[in-house]
Amino acid sequence: MDTRTFYAALPSMDRLISxxxxxxxxxxxxxxxxxxxxxxxxxxARAHIAAHAALPDWASSxxxxxxxxxxxxxxxQHMALRPAFNLTGTVLHTNLGRAIQAEVAVEAVTAAMxxxxxxxxxxxxxxxxxxxxxxxxxxxxLTGAEAACVVNNNASAVLITLSAMAAGREVIVSRxxxxxxxxxxxxxxxxxxxxxxxxxxxATNRTHLRDYESAISNDSALLMKVHTSNYSIEGFSxxxxxxxxxxxxxxxxxxLVTDLxxxxxxxxxxxxxxxxxxxxxxxxAGADIVTFSGDKLLxxxxxxxxxxxxxxxxxxxxxxxxxxxxxxxLTLAALEATLRLYLEPDLLAQKLPTLRLLTRPQSQMRxxxxxxxxxxxAIAGAGFEVKLxxxxxxxxxxxxxxxxxxxxxxxxxxxxxxxxxxxxxxxxWRALPQPLIGRISEGRLWLDLRCLEDEAGFIANFCA
Length: 464
Ligand SMILES: *Cc1c(COP(=O)(O)O)cnc(C)c1O
Hints:
There is one protein chain. By secondary structure, the chain is of the alpha/beta class. The protein contains 20 helices and 16 strands. It has helices spanning 3-9, 13-17, 23-29, 31-52, 62-75, 103-114, 133-143, 154-166, 187-193, 209-215, 242-251, 279-285, 310-318, 320-325, 329-341, 348-351, 353-358, 362-380, 419-430, 455-463; strands at 85-86, 90-92, 147-151, 170-174, 180-182, 185-186, 197-201, 220-226, 256-261, 289-293, 304-308, 384-396, 405-414, 436-437, 439-441, 444-448. The model has no long low-confidence stretch (mean pLDDT 94). Pyridoxal-5'-phosphate binds at residues 153-155, 158, 181, 185, 226-227, 229, 259, 261-262, 293, 304, 398.
């Protein structure tokens, strides 16, 4: 058949977009998007005819063409950022958004999004307030700090702290603490960015108090401790604690700054978890400034918290970078709601998802696994052997790298023993409406149940 017949079979743009099939699309998506999409599909149909001398099936009638346009317009509205099931076994998974927010934080953010808020508005004096005031007061109460300040994340907390306290001068750090947090965040690079000169002391595995002592000079702006959050140096090793370092720093008139990273605000060992250094302990030990993340063990939104001596915090608040790194109302709303939970610590393990997940009893996960075993065997099919296994989950986000929490997983082994079959299963589940992310290890797919709270939604997701 002559290709001209195929071209002629395509409707004109005008006819297509004013057709009864397309009219509702104009209402739903607007005329601009409809026209743009219809044009692209007609072009694609013509290109198909030119290449294959045939009309594509999807353009073989006006109804089919309209259905395709509807699908394309719908697909363009699918969010790339969407809820997922984190069954990786890493509770604070940076690639999956770290801490899950508490319900009170979700409500506070929603309310803050919908309307005006008292962000920089002092209700008592009706003057201009400061956006960090509420958080700062909460952090003072919770950590005993003189003052506090909030920025976008802990990386920016370190950057602004160094910029405000030590630009153009020397910062003394142990060689064992020149960490890379991930991506481009390496302590030596941040120092350079802040305009400081790094003075390394000690050796990779051992640094002594005398190393700091002999390094301090008139040019020293501060002593810095960096919590080695994502690795551990074991064996013949020595580092100098804040408690040991503070008297030296203060005797020589140099402030001590600690980048704590994860920074738990409560004693995790009281919950049977591995102990993690707390900002309040560091302040009590004599650190002048402590920085930590909002979305690691604290369980709040992405933020960088700076606590410590008022004179230094004032200087950080006044630094020009503060404006560039300040938090928006959504972050501040979530953070304030999260911090208020810490005022009622007895309820924390129930209301703060991070702590609730970290303290989930293994027995509860075993019961859940037993309930899910048969439905998941049916979903995975006869090609897989499904088992319930004890396993170990991680806290994640650089916290407590060597500690593991006893957990339970459903594991899927392909009966044909082929890695390809396993990858296919993992890919299929990653492509679900709410992507399901597990972990492949030892020729099996592991779904660690620690973070599975929405069991009904989890099952329904397979049938969607
Ligand atoms: C995680 C971490 C950072 C970076 O914190 P973000 O909140 O991810 O920006 C910096 N220092 C240490 C020691 C960390 O553990």
